[in-house]
Specification:
Layout lengths: L1 H25 L1 H23 L13 H5 L3 E9 L4 E5 L7 H5 L8 E5 L2 E3 L3 H8 L5 E9 L4 E9 L3 E4 H7 L3 E3 L10 H20 L9 H30 L1
Parallel strand pairs: 3-6
Antiparallel strand pairs: 1-2, 1-5, 2-3, 4-8, 5-6, 6-7
Helix pairs in contact: 6-7, 7-8
Length: 247
């Protein structure tokens, strides 16, 4: 008797398995759709949690971690104003997911200021000449407030070359190197970037370009000496950092 029961149980299991297989064959398209839908939903949730596909339309929308890590974001230029560049953020594109997200993505532009640059008269006109309408660009986050972002702005010139607008304006004599808002002044990144900006400014001073062309020789020499003193302090600071880390 037990053997019959065991045999009956095996037959019922085999019959159930056969029916399940028949159902799966009949609804194969549905199963594939459910699996694909679950996979897409999982990727979408992961992307949203990392905020890599989120379109930012306000400085305060950007996660604090992005600013602290000085993340580079992609954008498209819309307007050049006295206050800065009005840029549309272009998030990372993921096939199919991006098409879905576009339906609920907000509209709006980010105001970007060129970090470490005090703009001079003529700088806005120069930017309008040099940059194309809808110009693609990258902006590296250095700081922010409720209304604008402080950034290094990079524009591609050809396939292999890129131009940093912050440095280029200074080297054209269309601004002065200034304090980089948003970065801690004791950080290595601050001193590294400020040194780059000072070097760009010195190019304009030496070539008598832009705002420096009307200065007398003695005034230009004074500017150079002042800048050289700053570089000397910068080297002393770097040496102090290295010695403290070696301890």
């Amino acid at each position: 008797m037990p053997e019959r029961g065991g045999g009956g149980g095996s037959e019922r299991a085999a019959l159930a398995l056969a029916r399940l297989s028949e159902w799966a064959d009949a609804h194969l398209g549905l199963l594939r759709g459910l699996i694909a839908g679950a996979a897409v939903a999982g990727v979408l949730l992961l992307a949203r949690s990392l905020r890599v596909t989120t379109k930012f339309t306000s400085p305060l929308d950007i996660p604090v971690e992005f600013v602290e890590k000085n993340v580079k974001l992609r954008g498209k230029l819309h307007h050049i104003t006295e206050k800065g560049l009005e840029v549309e953020h272009i998030p990372i594109s993921i096939p199919f997911i991006t098409a879905i997200q576009r339906k609920w993505q907000p509209e709006g532009l980010l105001l970007i200021r060129l970090a470490g640059v005090e703009l001079a008269p003529g700088s806005t006109a120069w930017l309008q000449r040099e940059l194309l309408p809808k110009q693609p660009l990258w902006f590296q986050l250095l700081g922010r407030d409720s209304s604008a972002l402080e950034c290094l702005v990079l524009v591609h010139k050809g396939r292999l070359l890129s131009m940093c607008l912050n440095e280029e304006l200074l080297s054209q004599g269309l601004g002065r190197a200034a304090r980089i808002e948003g970065l801690p002044h004791h950080s290595r990144l601050y001193w590294k970037l400020h040194k780059r900006l000072l070097r760009a400014e010195l190019k304009a001073v030496k070539k008598n370009k832009g705002i420096w062309k009307d200065q007398s020789y003695s005034e230009r020499i004074q500017e150079r000496i002042s800048s050289n003193k700053f570089l000397l302090r910068l080297k002393q600071f770097v040496s102090w950092v290295r010695s403290s880390t070696e301890r």
